[in-house]
Design brief:
There is one protein chain. By secondary structure, the chain is an alpha+beta fold. It is 30% helix and 18% strand. It contains 16 helices and 22 strands. The protein has a 5-stranded antiparallel beta sheet with strand order 1-2-5-4-13. A 5-stranded antiparallel beta sheet has the order 3-14-15-12-11. Strands 6-7-8-9-10 form a 5-stranded mixed beta sheet, covered by helices on one side. The longest helix has 18 residues. It is globular.
Length: 594
């Protein structure tokens, strides 16, 4: 494969060029001792540059991918960065960002130029800002959607980028779009979550949105609450800005642990929070920058739903769907598990699997070639994969062949074998366990036990309580915790069961039991095997869990796994996954969590 050459003559947006110039100036002043460390930290974070636990000048660079939309030139730029400025690969996050680790601080302006040359930015990907605006990765191709929210998410991202109110908020602010109540975009645990809905009017049916506010995960998860039953399309951006302004005015600024939108519900009460948001929206009309009306991007791109095609069986989507993989041939198995059908325009979509959300430089380059060859659209998913869209059926065998050549054609992307994990203690200052190592170990055990293709289950792992791996929202979730056994520290996890996002609602996983890290894979195997044996036809995990008495009851059946051998009898219990030395909790200064 020919190594991609980046076009250094590409025209860069003036605003992005100004960002790059300012970063270079601030970096020079910082190195000269003219800028204090705390000031540089805030500036660096607002530009998407995050410190790693390794310290020194090595940084994580986070790239925003609004609505997850990626093009061949994006893949090629990412390949170039992975190969020349990082460790050979990049990482997809649960919020549709791309991250590169071990980037030298001096290299950041060059990385920003590479990204700017293809229209990507790191601006406000971290810090107390409006973060990457997410959208359902099947938007515009989903047979169930009410509206195609793609252009809405992109217009929202564009509007709030460099917005005066979005630069020094009390804390980060997350916005998410879903095209229907199935909520594949996961709107229900965001500061502002938007779900497309309809209402009946005298003239017929009107499509618009239901806006949910004050959702969040972390150590204290909070479900998003409906602001009002229906928000007309022309009022959506003013509603979002009103939420942002109320958060800016009333959010806790002196206590970062309580500085998210969800804490305003406790501080003000939900009715008062609603009142203040509606008041802001009402008088926002007088603002010189009033954002009302249909955004230009939506007018140009449209938002009509994909619809359903007569005679084509619609593929079920969403959490809890029991996909059956019954074929024997590799292509047949992949086609059954990874292809989504049902769009009225006659196209199909197919998932490319990225193990642990990682993509190498060579894979990025190959993805660009495949996308160009097939004329497909690609999006990053919130389960750390890539989905190819706008495909014809006759192109599927070629896509499978091309993905197989780069090890991205595993059947079951987005299903059980696709364990989701945050970066964990590999690079994060806050993590206490190697969540990626556990994810790998769980995946391996499921494969060994013949359970990796059980349908209707999701597994998510976080290396601490902050839920960057979204452990609260999965059927089986884990978050890392230090354990003490035989007078020594040891890596451990809290297991949660029954998390669910869908039907415009969210149920957070309940605690089942604590486990040594080394026993977590066995706990998963036992739960999955039991679920597969005991569930009724089509029964979702959360309903099966209720029949068993809930998470605590199932946890009691695993109590024998919450045991540590002595260090002499089981030394591996005192060493974390992907580590070689004794377990030790090392927590750095918190800059920001994902």
């Amino acid at each position: 494969m020919v190594t991609v050459q980046i076009d250094n003559t590409a025209v860069i947006d003036p605003a992005q060029q100004a960002d790059i110039d300012k970063f270079e100036q601030m970096l020079a002043r910082y190195k000269a001792g003219e800028i204090p460390e705390d000031v540089m930290r805030v500036f660096r974070l607002n530009n998407g540059i995050y410190g790693q636990r390794q310290g020194g000048t090595r940084q994580m660079v986070r790239i925003k991918i609004p609505a997850g939309v990626v093009f061949p030139a994006h893949f090629e730029a990412l390949a170039h960065i992975a190969r020349t400025h990082s460790r050979g690969w990049g990482h997809i996050t649960t919020r549709q960002n791309i991250q590169f680790h071990f980037v030298d601080l001096d290299d950041v302006p060059d990385v920003m130029r590479i990204l700017a040359s293809v229209g990507l930015t790191t601006r406000e990907a971290c810090g107390d800002t409006v973060r990457n605006v997410q959208g359902c990765h099947l938007a515009g191709a989903c047979p169930h959607e009410v509206l195609d929210i793609t252009a809405w998410a992109q217009a929202t991202a564009q509007y709030f980028l460099r917005h005066p109110y979005a630069q020094r908020l009390p804390r980060k602010f997350k916005i998410n779009f879903s095209g229907c109540a199935t909520d594949c975009g996961q709107a229900m645990f965001n500061d502002v979550g938007i779900v497309a809905v309809t209402r009946q009017t005298q003239g017929g049916t009107e499509a618009g949105f239901r806006v949910f506010v004050a959702g969040g995960l972390g150590a204290n998860p909070h479900p998003a609450l409906a602001l009002e039953e229906f928000t007309p399309r022309e009022d959506l951006l003013p509603t979002i800005e009103a939420c942002l302004r109320v958060f800016d005015h009333d959010g806790y600024r002196d206590n970062k642990l309580r500085a998210r939108m969800k804490w305003l519900v406790e501080k003000l009460g939900f009715e008062e929070l609603q009142r203040r948001i509606f008041r802001e929206r009402k008088f926002l009309l007088a603002s010189s920058s009033w954002p009302g009306g249909i955004p230009d991007l939506v007018r140009a791109g449209g938002d009509a739903p994909a619809g359903r095609r007569a005679g084509v069986e619609t593929t079920p989507v969403g959490q809890g769907i029991a996909v059956s993989i019954g074929g024997r041939a590799p292509y047949e198995r992949w086609e059954q598990a990874n292809v989504v059908r049902g769009a009225a325009k006659g196209t199909v979509s197919a998932y490319a699997w990225a193990r642990l959300g990682d993509i190498t430089a060579a894979q990025f380059e190959a993805l660009a070639d495949i996308q160009r060859e097939l004329g497909a659209e690609c999006r990053v998913t919130n389960r750390q994969n890539i989905v190819f869209r706008d495909l014809a059926d006759h192109q599927l065998p070629r896509l499978f062949e091309a993905l197989s050549a780069i090890n991205m054609a595993e059947p079951g992307a987005e299903l059980l074998r696709d364990v989701v994990a945050c970066p964990g203690a590999d690079t994060c200052n806050l993590a206490v366990t190697q969540s990626r190592g556990l994810a790998d170990a769980i995946g391996d055990r499921l494969e060994q036990e013949g359970l990796a293709e059980i349908g209707g289950l999701r597994i998510n792992i976080s290396g601490c309580t902050n839920s960057c791996g979204q452990h609260h929202a999965s059927d089986i979730g884990f978050f890392g915790a230090e354990r003490r056994a035989h007078g020594r520290s040891a890596p451990g996890y809290q297991m949660l069961l029954g998390g669910y996002v869908g039907d415009a609602q969210i149920h957070f996983g309940a605690k089942a039991l604590r486990l040594p890290a080394r026993n977590a894979p066995e706990a998963v195997v036992q739960v999955v095997r039991r679920f597969a044996a005991e569930r009724s036809a089509g029964e979702e995990f959360r309903h099966w869990l209720d029949r068993q008495g809930g998470a605590r009851a199932v946890g009691k059946t695993l109590a024998h796994l919450d045991e540590f051998p002595t260090p002499a009898a089981g030394p591996e219990f005192f060493v974390d996954f992907d580590e070689t030395g004794p377990y030790e909790v090392v927590i750095g200064d918190s800059e920001c969590a994902t």
